[in-house]
Amino acid sequence: MSYKAKFRVWRGEGGEGRLEDFTVEVNDGEVVLDIIHRLQATQAPDLAVRWNCKAGKCGSCSMEINGKPRLGCMTRMSTFAEDETITVTPMRAFPVIKDLVTDVSFNYQKAREIPSFTPPSDVKPGEYRMQQIDVERSQEFRKCIECFMCNNVCHVIRDHEENKPAFAGPRFLMRIAELDMHPYDVADRKDAAQEEHGLGYCNITKCCTEVCPEHIKITDNALIPMKERVVDRRYDPLVWLGNKIFRRSDAKR
Amino acid sequence: MTQTTAENTARRQRAQIKERTLRTDQWWRYPLVTFIIFMAFLIYATWAIFDKSFFVSPYHAPFASPCLAQATCPEEARLFGFAPFGDWYTLPPGLLILGLPAGFRFTCYYYRKAYYRGFWLSPPACAVGEPHRRYTGESRFPLILQNIHRYFFYAAIVIGLILAIDAVKALIGKPDGLGTWILIINAVFINLYTLSCHSCRHITAGRLNHFSRHPVRYRAWGFVSKLNAKHQELALISMFTVMGADLYVRLVAKGIINFPFA
Ligand code: SF4
Ligand code: SF4
Ligand code: FES
Predict the structure, then answer these.
(1) Within a domain: residue B138?
(2) Where are the coiled-coil regions (chain A) (predicted)?
């Protein structure tokens, strides 16, 4: 079975551009990325799109389909009505290179700003002892395929370009949570999360969780637990007093 | 064709799409429904505070419990006879305690999400532009105060306990009363909601990094985590049960509901 679908695709270089209309063949079992490739092959040979695995695992083909951040390779055409016009645009929060391809270097820069895993100096490699339950929580976060759709959808920067310097975005706040929950990480992540990486900007409205193709519970399992850890450190006077009196540190518990 | 290199200024610009959103589904339903439900709750709560018929033996309306004022609380309505506010206090007794459950819900992570979306439209829905020009979220005053949620959680544990006591009192006084069972169901959901709180999850063991060294707390964390996954549902269900139970008791107290097993 095949039919002709109506597509509107963003075309342009840099920020300038417009939505261009296409009518294009769709066959059984195809996904949006297949249709974009058919447009390339038949009507728009210079249409730019980034992709790689076609299996939802490389995180390259992030785009916005009918206004929602989605992976092009994982969005089945069968989820749309045949007479529906399907609008495909690049991710909104990042600068456009060409057509559907955005410059996602913001994310790489934010990744670099987070100090890497910091083990205690007296534990040598080979001496780490952890049980499965100690690392289970952060394993969820390691399913991330770095599609950056969570950072793209987050209104903190999507709607406010000026917040970009102050805010690491859900992807990297989750990275901080992952390290902070690590049994052998001793770096100070709590104050840094709040002061340098903008955890306070997040208002837990859960759009990152809604769009994550790996179904990671970013808000419930990373951001809110991290906010609670910051409360321990900074906003809970009882904990603060206890730490002052007993001079204890959270790091190794 | 111009080269778009990283140095090119054109490459610093996002797609200049005019529409606030290109979503085609009914994204406005969630904020709208949230707005309507919360408004209904606020209006009811405001009325209930000033309504005087909050007690009819053995039922105590949850919005006015515990009753701490000597002037307005009948002997039987007091918690173990405890009424520290003397005759000088003549305002509605609900005012004395309502701040605690209200503060708990107001700073609750679920309610925050819901009203930031439904009332403040920040954002109204995912990938829908928000109407505000500037945004700092919970990074500074006043919203940084949301971080006191944990204290309201401690208070909510106490309130949950008191509602459970009220339910037991009703059970002793009138085991076959419909109101008794309404109060019991309400107490169960209020306490489940309280236990499913994110702060509770954090306190049980979320703050630890070595679960394996704290097996009991780890088990508790597993249990709270299961409840926590249903936090939104429990928040809404308990909101309806508390409103329903409160209204029911008041209607019985007013004699509007008066069948034999009421
Ligand atoms: S939950 Fe926080 S980080 Fe995630 S999209 Fe919403 S504001 Fe951004
Ligand atoms: S957390 Fe999810 S949405 Fe964000 S980059 Fe990773 S896979 Fe993509
Ligand atoms: S092409 Fe790899 S995730 Fe879509």
Answers:
(1) yes
(2) none
Tell which CATH classification among 1.10.3720.10, 1.10.1060.10, 3.40.50.12780, 3.40.50.2300 matches the domain A105-252: 1.10.1060.10
The CATH architecture one would assign to domain A2-102 is Roll (3.10)
In angstroms, rounded to a whole number, what is the distance separating the alpha carbons of residues B257 and B254?
A: 8
Minimum mean pLDDT among B4-8, B93-97, B175-179: which range?
A: B4-8
**Residue A213 Cβ contacting ligand 3 at under 6 Å:** no
Cβ count near A48 (within 10 Å): 17
Question: DSSP string spanning B189-239?
Answer: HHHHHHHT-HHHHIIIIIT-S-GGG-HHHHHHHHHHHHHHTTHHHHHHHHH
Structure confidence at residue B5 (pLDDT): 56
Cβ distance of A203 and B21 shorter than 8 Å: no
Q: Residue B159, Cα to own-chain centre: how many angstroms?
A: 12
Query: Is the Cβ of A123 closer than 8 Å to some Cβ of chain B?
Result: no
- The answer to the question of residue B2 being in a domain is no
Whether residue B89 lies within 8 A of chain A, CB to CB, comes out as no
Tally of domains in chain B: 1
- List the domain boundaries for chain A: 2-102, 105-252
Least confident of A190-194, A248-252, B166-170: A248-252
Phi-psi region of A24 (alpha: psi -120 to 50; beta: other; left: phi over 0): beta
- DSSP for A102-144, written as a single string: E--HHHHHHHHTS------TTS-TT-----HHHHHHHHHHTT-
Q: At what angle do helices B231-253 and B29-50 cross, to 10 degrees?
A: 30
Alpha-carbon gap, residue B60 to B53, rounded angstroms: 10
Model confidence pLDDT, tens digit, residues B55-76: 999 999 999 989 998 888 888 8
List of residues 6+ apart from B18 with CB closer than 8 A: none
Q: For the segment B235-256, what is each residue's pLDDT rounded down to a tens digit?
A: 999 999 999 999 999 999 999 9
